[in-house]
Design a protein that fits this description.
Blueprint: E1 3-6, H1 13-25, E2 33-36, H2 47-55, E3 59-61, H3 65-71, H4 81-93, H5 96-103, E4 109-111, E5 114-116, H6 132-138, E6 146-148, E7 156-161, H7 180-191, E8 195-197, E9 202-204, E10 210-215, E11 229-235, E12 239-245, H8 249-258, H9 263-271
Parallel strand pairs: 1-2, 2-3, 5-6, 6-10
Antiparallel strand pairs: 1-11, 4-5, 7-8, 7-10, 9-12, 11-12
The structure holds zinc ion (ZN).
Zinc ion binds next to loops.
C-alpha cells in the first residue's frame, strides 16, 4: 500500500494540483489513498477548488483550526487579523456542499499504524507541536506506533525509543544482559526525551523499537524557509518519502491580490514563511 500525506493546503489550488500530479504520475506504484491532515482552507484564494479536488479522490480528511473556524465550529477570536479576514471571505465563497464537507470532518482518525490529527493527540485542533517536551507529553496519548500531524507547516519528526525490555528478554524470561550498569542504562533510555529530526527529501524509515510523530510540512503555505510545496508518501513497509515540489507561486499571488486578500499572504508564499 502507498499513501500520500497532504497537510495545510490552505486554499492553494495550484500547489494542490502540483501535489496531485506528483501523486498520479511520479510514484513507482499507484497511490491507494490520500490522507489530508487538515486546514484545507484559509489564507489562500481557492477554497472551493481545493475541497473539490480532494473530494474527487479516495481520501481521508481530518479537521484543522481553519476548517473549523470557517465552518463555524470554532470562534474566529482565536485567529490573527489576516486569518480572520480570510476566514470570513472564505465562508462567503464556499458552496453549501463544501461548507457541509468542512463541518463533518473528524478530528482524529486511526488508519494502518497511524493516528491522524491536525495539531496533536492532546489537542487535535489547536496545539502546535514544536518542542520535544510537548511531543513527550503527547506520545502516551495515542495507541498506534505512529502519529501524523500538521498545523506548524514545518516538516518535522519526533522520534521516541520504545521500552526495549521485551526485546531484550531471553525466551526463559530473564534479561539477556544482566548487571547493575545495564539496569541503569535501561532506566535512562526510558526516561530519555524524544529526538527532534528535520527530514530531508527522500525515503526515511522509522528505526526499529521507536515510535514517531511526523509532520510532512505544508502543501499550500510552507513555513520552513523553503517555498516549495511539501508532501510525503507513506508505505507501511518502506517508510516515508518526503518530497518538495516547485509550483507557480506567482499565479497564486495574483489570485490572492485579485480577491482583495491581504498582500502579506501573497508575499509570504515566495519566502516559505
Ligand atoms: Zn495551517
Amino acid at each position: 500500500m502507498l499513501y500520500a500525506i497532504l497537510s495545510d493546503i490552505h486554499s492553494n489550488a495550484t500547489a494542490l494540483a502540483r501535489a496531485l500530479e506528483e501523486i498520479d504520475h511520479h510514484t513507482d506504484e499507484p497511490v491507494d489513498q490520500i490522507w489530508c491532515l487538515g486546514d484545507i482552507v484559509g489564507y489562500g484564494p481557492d477554497p472551493n477548488e481545493c475541497i473539490e479536488l480532494l473530494r474527487d479522490r479516495n481520501h481521508l480528511g481530518i479537521a484543522g483550526n481553519h476548517d473549523w473556524g470557517i465552518a463555524g465550529l470554532a470562534s474566529l477570536d482565536h485567529f490573527s487579523f489576516a486569518a480572520r479576514l480570510v476566514a470570513e471571505w472564505t465562508r462567503d465563497q464556499l458552496t453549501p456542499d463544501n461548507l457541509a464537507y468542512l463541518q463533518h470532518l473528524a478530528t482524529t482518525l486511526t488508519v494502518e499504524d497511524c493516528t491522524l490529527v491536525h495539531g496533536s493527540p492532546r489537542d487535535p485542533i489547536w496545539e502546535y507541536l514544536l518542542s520535544t517536551d510537548q511531543a513527550d507529553a503527547n506520545f502516551p496519548l495515542f495507541a498506534t506506533r505512529l502519529c501524523l500531524v500538521g498545523h506548524t507547516h514545518v516538516p518535522t519528526i519526533f522520534l521516541q525509543a520504545e521500552e526495549r525490555a521485551d526485546s531484550e528478554m531471553t525466551p526463559e524470561g530473564t534479561p539477556a544482559v544482566a548487571g547493575e550498569a545495564h539496569a541503569e542504562e535501561d532506566e535512562e533510555t526510558l526516561l530519555a526525551s524524544c529526538d527532534l529530526l528535520e527530514p530531508g527529501e527522500g525515503w526515511w524509515q522509522v528505526p526499529p523499537y521507536c515510535r514517531a510523530i511526523i509532520n510532512p510540512g505544508s502543501v499550500g503555505q510552507p513555513r520552513d524557509g523553503d517555498p516549495r510545496a511539501a508532501i510525503a508518501f507513506y508505505d507501511p513497509e518502506r517508510g516515508f518519502n518526503f518530497r518538495r515540489l516547485e509550483y507557480d507561486i506567482v499565479a497564486v499571488q495574483e489570485r490572492i491580490l485579485a480577491a482583495g486578500l491581504p498582500r502579506r499572504l501573497a508575499e509570504r508564499l515566495a519566502y516559505g514563511m
